[in-house]
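Thread: quick sanity check before group meeting

JM: Hey all, I'm pulling together slides for Thursday and realized we never actually wrote out the predicted structure for the chain we discussed last week. Dropping the sequence here so it's in one place. If anyone has concerns about the input, flag it before I start.
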Amino acid sequence: MNAEVTLGEKIEEALHRFQEKQFVDEAELYQLLRPYVQGVVRRFYMNPYKLDNAEVIDDITQDALMDIFRLDLKNFEEKNGKFVTYCGVIAKNKTIDAMRWQARHQDEMEEEIDKALYEESVEAIVLAQYEKLELIDRTKHYLRLFVELSEKPYRLVSGCFSMLLFHKYFPKTRELSSPGWAFEQLSDNSVEMGADRFMEEMSQWMPYLSLFWSDEFLDELYETEYGERVGQLVFGEHFKKKDFENWAVAIRKKIKNKMSEAEYNRCVMELS
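JM (edit): ok, ran it. Output follows.
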């Protein structure tokens, strides 16, 4: 009995037949690619508002498919990986771009509301700015405790994604962290790539902060574990989602030990 052919295998076979002009047109390839791409989008798209996101997922899927069909499919070579893998990367990146746009759009809406509330009161504007400066100082203190924490680089990067960056994309969530989301984001990243991504994302999200990894963190990237340089370890190859969950608990405990309980809770609420 023959093993069941996967959708990915069907796509690869259709691409080869299309390239060899064996009665496969772009429409047939599209019909095979659409459910695959949509599955990738649905996996990576997270909706913090618990709303019907079918329309959003469909829009992202169409956007990704348009990029795929802009490729020179007849001359596509798999020397750098399978075609379905390449399509999956495009779908994942389009999903992340859409989530970033939504987060920025939400921030802009809130800024407009704040402006409407305060524009007639000079005193209120001064008070709001003073409170904002206080918030910036507290946020800086909290974030620097994270990036300067004495911890293995892979644990620290996972914690920063799970407990900090998660709130950039889901500002209205009631969850304090999401190790599952962090694992999905980092599974195909090396520790070094994840560390760079975190700093880049934070600089876009909070440009008024100046965050840097500690010298200890940078030095440990060049140590050896699992037979490889730590910075080159790929999260999905060496760690599991359960590891991310355990690390988040341990890091939260360390941070709380460095701060009072009240200050910790206030910083978490302000960040989210």
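AS: nice. The first strand starts at residue 224 and ends at 225. The CA atoms of residues 18 and 24 lie 5 Å apart.
JM: adding both to the slides.
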